[in-house]
Amino acid sequence: MAYATIRDVARRAGVSVSTVSRALNDSGRISQETRDRVRQVIEELQYVPDSRARSMHSLHSQAVGLLIPDIRNSYFADLAYSVQHELLRHDLQTLICTADDRPDQERTLVGNLLGQHIDGAIVVPSPSPSPAVDRLLRQGIPVVYIDRTPSAGPDGQTGRVPVVDADPRSGLRSAIADLHAQGHRRVTLITGSLEDSDTLRERRRVFERELSRFPDMSDPQTQDPGIRLGWEPGSTARNARLAAVLKERGTTAVVFSRSQDAIEALGTFQGAGWVIGRDLSLVSFDDLPIFSLLTPSISVISQQVDRMGAVSVATLLRLMKGEEARSLRLETRYIRRQSVGPSPGSAAGVTAPPGTPVLPNGRRVCKGQPGGTGNDP
Amino acid sequence: MAYATIRDVARRAGVSVSTVSRALNDSGRISQETRDRVRQVIEELQYVPDSRARSMHSLHSQAVGLLIPDIRNSYFADLAYSVQHELLRHDLQTLICTADDRPDQERTLVGNLLGQHIDGAIVVPSPSPSPAVDRLLRQGIPVVYIDRTPSAGPDGQTGRVPVVDADPRSGLRSAIADLHAQGHRRVTLITGSLEDSDTLRERRRVFERELSRFPDMSDPQTQDPGIRLGWEPGSTARNARLAAVLKERGTTAVVFSRSQDAIEALGTFQGAGWVIGRDLSLVSFDDLPIFSLLTPSISVISQQVDRMGAVSVATLLRLMKGEEARSLRLETRYIRRQSVGPSPGSAAGVTAPPGTPVLPNGRRVCKGQPGGTGNDP
DNA sequence: TTGATTTGCGGTATCGTTACCGCACTGGTA
DNA sequence: TACCAGTGCGGTAACGATACCGCAAATCAA
Question: Residues in domain HTH lacI-type (chains A, B) (predicted)?
Answer without folding.
Answer: 4-58
